Amino acid sequence: MARYQRPGWMTQHIANPLVAFVTERLGRSLRGSRVLAVRGRRSGQWRTVPVNPLELNGRRYLVAPRGETDWVRNLRAAGTGELRLGGKAESFRATELADAEKPPILRAYIDRWRSETGVFFGVSADPSEADLIRIAPDHPVFAIEPV
Predict the structure, then answer these.
(1) Cα separations (Å) of 77 from 44, 111, 127?
(2) Which of 42, 70, 87, 136 is deepest in the core (most CB within 10 A)?
(3) pTM of the predicted protein model
(4) Residue-by-residue DSSP string for 82-134
């Protein structure tokens, strides 16, 4: 069974809408935040959610700290999406990584956004390689490339 940590009421109704408003409408990135827009796998309608893209060694990634979320399922189905900041939308193609490729990306993501998302990974602030390998199946990671 796929792991998913549902957002609480505060996150769903206050924090995410506030971050999305500041990022997409005001064009202000909060520590690198963007609004991910991806077509719904069933409806075909645009779905949006704030995300924290990670840049590492010249490549960009989207990491799902909460596990198999709707945006993960939609991105798997669509294969493409947009990262929005203000009035700009950057189209991208996404490739999901295998679990064996995830540990260095998960380490960098946890280090960068520990204060916001660290609780979702269930590891220490400086996780061992074994811990990263253990949690890799629970956290989808996509490499993204501009289209």
Answers:
(1) 10, 29, 31
(2) 136
(3) 0.92
(4) EEEETTEEEEEEEEEPPGGG-HHHHHHHHHHHHHHHGGGT-S-SS--HHHHHH
